[in-house]
């Protein structure tokens, strides 16, 4: 297992190098470098800026600059954010964590909704329940995630006006967050994360449920299921142990791409709920041309993809005993 | 080979009954049986006609608003069909008057029964050019000047939201399709190049595909958008967004095209064509690419709704269509102006979203129908 994972890691190196080249050259193509904004600063003279340019290696040819940048990356230095005047890592890290909370919680909700619905749709094919969920899912597929979020906010606000319940619909913490105990802080964040996470999960459920239902149907008609039934295996075991385990294999293979896809997909929900995740900051960075922050988030995305791929390899070997990593 | 000899025998027997059909004729017959897909297709035609005729259907021009009679976020105008005595009359609307609500200190719009504006059809109004060259100034409906008819309310500048939805459909319905077409061309070319040349060309192209796929989609779009200044020309911004969406989405197609071409290259009929002395170009265009046509039709029809969703998302975030142009996504961004509570005060700003849902669903129904129609296992 370990040698296999290491080999996968080595195989992903060319992709990572390619991605860093892409990111670096996009940054170079963008107008201005990170000292351009300082030109307007009356406290810094032109000579000082030229000195800084030389110190940062900005007067060197592009290729040399690229290697400087990669050398710094390897040392964990993602550059300096112009807007925050801080190392990018310090600016980016808390946002990545926030997004991860949201995404992990929503993944949990996502599976809790998607798996039973997909299994139900296959086991009770063409029943009224199946038809209703299928139609609903089809309808949901057309909803952009931010539109779904806006509609949910609309209804929550109506409920809030009608009942006076304090349902949080924005941000990640309450105003009195700092005064709360550790448990209170946890519950407070959970309360704020819950609604965006559920909205995010529901938005993604539609596609997966449809595919899972198809996969289940395909496996339910397989010969080995007939054999299992013939030898008297209980229906529950037939569905969950025999069929389901085979039906989810393609999903587990896709988990690698799930984490980065979810983080990027969560962006719209984050913006609508003004949740302090990655995407709102990324948009601010775009507006202030804070290039190293944008690059930093993209690099984090690549890192998550590599981690996700490793996780999915491990899970695949657990679920599917036919897969042996020799 | 046993199969190959059996097939002509059966088609020969069928020929006595009816004419042989091409693949597309078979698919069309199958498609005609698919009710929902036809429904989707018809609705799409209606939507595109609506987009084409937007300047005529809309009572105002894209960004007309009054500077003296401010109608910021005016609610939908109620159209009356009965006059005060209850008898049916020509539809009319009341004028507005604004009152300050002393509890909330918000200006509220109250209909003013003293001002009555009948709705006229085929009225003269703001001049426009359909498709950029057919001039006109007739609008389907409208009221006389100081009056306003806002079927679904007004936006933050007091512009008619219905007009803006109609104009936005032109952008929302073209950007997705345009970017899919461009990405298809890129994907086909790159896939064919990779399959045909092999070696380092193949290697480089496939690595580029991997690199593009390795950066999360939204981050990549924002990263690429950072290459251009934030305040670029609004028209240019539309082209940028088409280009970005095409650039990030050709990889999957290129991969499939490459794989398909590589497997088709080994087929007997290609070997036969080669041994008959066909040129490379003839083999590629007459024998290999047609094998991909059904796959392409289905992929394109299912990629369009995805790109329409992507465009609406980017416009919602403010990096797609920008003022003075509008797309359904950028119209929805207004729902966020002024904090959360503003949605409950003016729920009509959510209406553009339903147009997105309708369009995407129609494209999906159509795409699913096409997929089933071309799938021999689903023949009826």
Order of helices and strands of chain B: HHHHEEEEEHHHHHHHHHHH
Determine the strand fraction of chain A and express it as a percent band: under 5%
CATH superfamily name of the largest domain in chain B?
A: MetI-like
Strand content of chain B: 5-15%
How many strand units of chain A? 2
Q: In the CATH hierarchy, what is the architecture of the largest domain in chain B at level 2?
A: Orthogonal Bundle
Describe this entry's structure for a reader.
The complex is a heterodimer of chains A (326) and B (380). Chain A has 326 residues and is mainly alpha-helical. Chain A has a domain of 185 residues: MetI-like (MetI-like fold). Chain A is built from 14 helices and 2 strands. In chain A, strand 1 and strand 2 form a beta hairpin. Chain B folds into 2 domains: 89 residues, no CATH class; 214 residues, MetI-like (MetI-like fold, Orthogonal Bundle). Chain B is 56% helix and 13% strand. In chain B, helix 5 runs parallel beside helix 9 and helix 5 runs parallel beside helix 15. The N terminus of chain B is likely disordered. Chains A and B meet through helix 2, helix 6, helix 7, helix 12 and helix 13 of A and helix 6, helix 7, helix 12, helix 14 and helix 15 of B.
Q: How is the secondary structure organized here?
A:
The complex is a heterodimer of chains A (about 325) and B (about 375).
Chain A: H1 2-11, H2 13-29, H3 46-56, H4 62-74, E1 80-81, E2 86-87, H5 88-123, H6 128-141, H7 145-163, H8 182-220, H9 223-230, H10 235-247, H11 249-253, H12 255-272, H13 278-287, H14 291-319
Antiparallel strand pairs in A: 1-2
Helix pairs in contact in A: 2-4, 2-14, 5-6, 5-8, 5-12, 5-14, 6-8, 7-8, 7-12, 8-10, 8-12, 9-10, 12-14, 13-14
Chain B: H1 2-15, H2 23-32, H3 35-52, H4 54-57, E1 80-82, E2 88-101, E3 106-118, E4 120-130, E5 134-142, H5 161-197, H6 199-214, H7 217-225, H8 234-249, H9 251-265, H10 268-275, H11 280-288, H12 293-316, H13 328-332, H14 341-345, H15 351-374
Antiparallel strand pairs in B: 1-2, 2-3, 4-5
């Amino acid at each position: 297992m370990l040698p296999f994972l290491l080999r996968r890691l080595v195989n992903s190196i060319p992709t990572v190098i390619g991605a860093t080249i892409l990111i670096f050259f996009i940054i170079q193509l963008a107008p201005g470098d990170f000292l351009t904004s300082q030109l307007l600063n009356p406290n810094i003279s032109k000579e000082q800026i030229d000195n800084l340019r030389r110190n940062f290696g900005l007067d060197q040819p592009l290729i040399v600059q690229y290697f400087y940048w990669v050398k710094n990356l390897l040392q964990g230095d993602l550059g300096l954010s112009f807007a925050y005047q801080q190392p990018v890592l310090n600016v980016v890290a808390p946002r990545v964590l926030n997004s991860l909370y949201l995404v992990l919680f929503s993944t949990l909700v996502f599976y809790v909704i998607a798996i039973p619905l997909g299994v139900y749709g296959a086991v009770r094919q063409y029943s009224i329940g199946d038809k209703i969920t299928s139609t609903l899912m089809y309808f949901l597929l057309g909803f952009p995630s931010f539109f779904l979020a806006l509609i949910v906010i609309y209804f929550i606000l109506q409920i809030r006006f009608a009942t006076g319940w304090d349902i949080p619909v924005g941000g990640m913490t309450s105003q009195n967050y700092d005064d709360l105990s550790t448990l209170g802080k946890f519950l407070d964040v959970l309360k704020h994360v819950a609604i965006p996470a559920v909205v995010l999960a529901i938005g993604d459920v539609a596609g997966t449920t449809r595919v899972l239902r198809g996969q289940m149907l395909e496996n339910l008609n397989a010969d080995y299921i007939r054999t299992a039934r013939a030898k008297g295996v209980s229906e529950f075991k037939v569905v969950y142990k025999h069929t389901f385990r085979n039906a989810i294999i393609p999903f587990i293979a896709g988990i690698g791409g799930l984490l980065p896809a979810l983080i990027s997909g969560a962006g719209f929900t984050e913006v609508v709920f003004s949740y302090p995740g990655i995407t709102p900051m990324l948009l601010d960075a775009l507006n202030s041309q804070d290039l190293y922050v944008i690059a930093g988030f993209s690099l984090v995305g690549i890192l998550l993809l590599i981690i996700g791929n490793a996780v999915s390899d491990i899970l695949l070997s657990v679920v599917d005993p036919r897969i042996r990593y020799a | 080979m046993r199969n190959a000899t059996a097939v002509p025998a059966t088609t020969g027997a069928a020929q006595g009954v009816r004419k042989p059909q091409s693949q597309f004729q078979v698919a069309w017959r199958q498609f005609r049986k698919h009710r929902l897909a036809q429904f989707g297709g018809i609705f799409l035609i209606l939507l595109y006609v609506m987009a084409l005729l937007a300047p005529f259907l809309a009572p105002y021009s894209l960004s007309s608003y009054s500077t003296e009679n401010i109608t910021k976020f005016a609610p939908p105008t109620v159209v009356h069909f009965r006059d005060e005595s209850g008898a049916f009359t020509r539809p009319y609307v009341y004028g507005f008057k604004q009152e300050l609500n002393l509890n909330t200190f918000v200006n509220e719009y109250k209909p003013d029964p003293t001002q009555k504006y009948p709705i006229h059809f085929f009225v003269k109004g703001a001049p426009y050019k359909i498709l950029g060259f057919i001039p006109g100034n007739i609008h389907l409906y409208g009221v006389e000047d100081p009056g306003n008819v806002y079927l679904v309310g007004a936006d933050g500048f007091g512009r008619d939201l219905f007009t803006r939805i109609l104009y936005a459909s032109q952008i929302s319905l073209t950007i997705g399709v345009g970017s899919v077409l461009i990405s298809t061309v890129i994907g086909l070319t790159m896939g064919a190049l990779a399959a045909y040349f092999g070696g380092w060309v193949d290697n480089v192209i496939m690595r580029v595909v991997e690199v593009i796929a390795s950066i999360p989609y939204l981050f990549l779009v924002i990263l690429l958008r950072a290459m251009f200044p934030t305040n670029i020309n609004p028209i240019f911004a539309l082209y940028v967004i088409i280009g970005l969406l095409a650039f990030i989405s050709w990889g999957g197609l290129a991969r499939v095209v490459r794989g398909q071409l590589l497997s088709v290259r080994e087929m007997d009929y290609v070997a036969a064509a080669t041994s008959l002395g066909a040129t490379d170009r003839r083999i590629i265009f007459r024998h290999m690419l047609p094998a991909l046509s059904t796959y392409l039709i289905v992929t394109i029809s299912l990629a369009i709704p995805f790109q329409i969703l992507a465009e609406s998302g980017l416009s919602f975030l403010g990096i797609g269509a920008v003022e003075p142009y509008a797309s359904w996504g950028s119209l929805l961004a207004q729902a966020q102006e002024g904090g959360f509570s503003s949605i409950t005060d003016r729920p009509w700003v959510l209406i553009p979203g339903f147009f997105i849902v309708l369009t995407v669903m129609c494209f999906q129904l159509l795409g699913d129908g096409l997929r089933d129609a071309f799938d021999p296992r689903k023949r009826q």
